[in-house]
Amino acid sequence: MSEAQSNQNTGGETLLYLTDEQLRQGIEAMFFAYRGFTADPDRILATLSYGRAHHRALHFIHGAPGTTVNNLLSILGVTKQSLNRVLRTLIEDGLVESRVGRQDKRERHLYLTEEGIALERRLSDAQRARMRAAYKQAGPEAVAGFRRVLEAMMDPEMRRQYHGLREGRG
User: Fold this and answer.
1) In Å, what is the CA distance from 163 to each residue of 74, 126, 147, 166?
2) 3-state class of 8 per DSSP?
3) How many helices (H) and strands (E) does the chain have?
């Protein structure tokens, strides 16, 4: 067979066997794709003296307005100190608003301001354009397969969070 060798097991499922070299090529492709995926937003962020952590915070706050700091900590998998530095900057610069929780006064709920929404849109538009072009070139079967591969690489807890975010958006 060409790049991958398929065999049938007794259950009738097709198994895919990849060589170490094919896996290495896939890993390298992911590294280079990630560089491309982040390059456009990085250029925008650099003009504002922000980094990818700021972008990730804006992205997930936009996707779940009112999310708590603790929820954002869980999604991003960063330390509280690291997230607080990022949030402090975004709040001071007028991109994020932090509101005290109504039921639990210890909670802080995060919302993007109009300026935050505008920046998040610029960053996401750049990534959407790149993904749209890649998906169009690869075709619908590749799009579905790519999503399945990405989900399969997630740890179970990350996959649960990912599905929770998708379900929360309706």
Assistant:
1) 14, 24, 12, 5
2) strand
3) 7, 5
